[in-house]
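Format notes (please read before filing issues)

Several people have asked whether sequences and structure tokens are stored in separate files. They are not. Every record keeps both together, in the order shown below: the sequence lines, then the token lines. Line labels are part of the format and must not be stripped during preprocessing.
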Amino acid sequence: MKLFNFINQPNSDVFKAKSVVKVEQLTSFDMIYVYHLLSVGTKLNLEFTEERLTGDIVYIVKFNSFVLGFITLTGLSKLLFSGEIELEATIFNLAKEKYLPLKSLELSVSKKSLKMVS
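Then the structure lines:
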């Protein structure tokens, strides 16, 4: 019996901090090319865009090279992901109608790489 199985697997989900955020500014110009490929569990990339005067962090949401929108991390999420240039995300929830772009999109965000602290 292994009580501390996570020690042998440093990339497991035990160490990953996750947060669920809503995409605020859904873009429609790139969405028309990929909306039919998006479903719950699809992996997306987040790239750092800017840090606002309030300290909130803004990331651009991309599917391959297509821009889907922007997210803003505030509060505890801002502290968890500060200093990260790229994050990975999976689609947590989405609302779409047939032949129309997405109405809403929620993502589960986590860090790409883990930092070991001693």
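For reference, the curators noted about this record: The longest helix spans residues 75-81. Residues 19-111 form a domain with the Alpha-Beta Plaits fold (CATH 3.30.70).
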